[in-house]
Amino acid sequence: MKTFILSLFFMGLATALPATIPTAHAADTLVIIVNSANQQVLTEQDIKNIYSDIVTNWKSGERINLYNLPAEDKARDKFSRAIFGESAREILQQEHNRKITNSIKNPSRTKRASLLSTIVARDVNAIAYLPKDMLKSDKDIRIVLEID
Hints:
single chain; 148 residues; D-Maltodextrin-Binding Protein, domain 2; 5 strands
């Protein structure tokens, strides 16, 4: 009987564990960043327009260098749901459809979160998003929006 009760206890514990282990970056605050030389003010709607391929140039006339996280990254899904109200997969499918129909004006580049701070710090025309805890402290980066 003791063995049976112990088995039930451990089975219950085992099924409870996955719910208590946080997934990487799922609940983290996201930051949308640009190079600090880019002083353009961006609203959430501006960011949506940039990532929707509606706005492709900065006010200065320079082409926006757009960076996305990999499709399977939970932070990308959080960004997509917060900005577009749709999953990352749905947004990615829309981008693929624009590529297939040759109607995409400014395709995004996909990079790992660990690289994005460095990329944006070096590129005055870049915009990216990443989990705040992955942001490297750099005077050449400016946060334009935070998503909790």
